[in-house]
Amino acid sequence: MNLDEFKILSVVLIFITTVLAGLYPFLRKFKTTRPLESPAAEALASGVFLGAGLIHMLGDASKSFLDHGIEYPIAFVLAGSVFLLLLWFEHLGRRLDEHGDSNSPAFAILAMVILSIHSLLAGTVLGLSGSITMMVMILIAILAHKWAASFSLAVQLSKSRLSLRQSLIMFALFTIMLPIGVGLGSGILEYTDNYPLLEPIFYSLAAGTFLYLGTLHGLKQSTLVDKCCDLRNFTFVVIGFALMAVVAIWA
């Protein structure tokens, strides 16, 4: 299986997972946003996201900028900016929730925007990847995260004051973000000769969202905050990070 075929397979698997996980809440009209939990899978995904962001994306992006004569640490600035933007979005959502506005359309739309940014940039990384080994690890992490994120977003949309049609449109937009990202990443590879800085720029932006997914996504419910003292879950974080460190030998 070549890279393009694996990218198509990845998009299909993620799309099916997203749709199936989000369909049930719309059919049953769930009224609770209590997240689905799979601690081991979430912890492993956190470690993979953290390792991919730090070891692969930031390292590759920084080296690429240096190779083009840019000594300013722009890769870290871009990654840090995305990280802080996502953190601000989550704090804004948390504030709305604390003030009893969790059923408002604004809260649902904000959740969709946050998760869509994650999906778009994660898809871009898959599209940019030149190693099947690297892509397999990222695919596993995305699938482990995606089903719970899709379910939670569908619940939030279905319990909001948005109409069913509006909610389905929002969910559809979220669903297509990752395929768009994969297409964007693949397209960037076609123009690297004419626009060599596009690849490190998008790697830097994606690194920011991967670092966020691996650390503070969900704030106090995140693996490294809520379950940081659970040795079993923390071990899975370390395993995920270690796997990405090993992949770096070949990728």
Explain what the structure shows.
Keywords: Membrane, Transmembrane, Transmembrane helix. GO terms for molecular function: zinc ion transmembrane transporter activity. It is a multi-pass membrane protein. The protein contains 9 helices and no strands. It is mainly alpha-helical. The chain has one domain (3-20, 45-250). Helix 1 packs parallel to helix 5. The model has no long low-confidence stretch (mean pLDDT 85).
In short, what is this structure?
With 251 residues, the chain is mainly α.
Total count of strands: 0
Portion of residues in beta strands equals under 5%
Number of helices: 9
Unreliable spans are none
Most strands sheet: none
Instruction: Give the domain tally.
Output: 1
Residues in helix, %: over 70%
Category from helices, strands and their pairing: mainly alpha
Assembly type of the chains comes to single chain
Q: Calculate Rg over CA atoms.
A: 18 Å
Mean model confidence by pLDDT: 85
Order of helices and strands: HHHHHHHHH
Pfam families: Zip
Protein name: Zinc transporter
GO molecular function, one term: zinc ion transmembrane transporter activity
Membrane topology: Multi-pass membrane protein
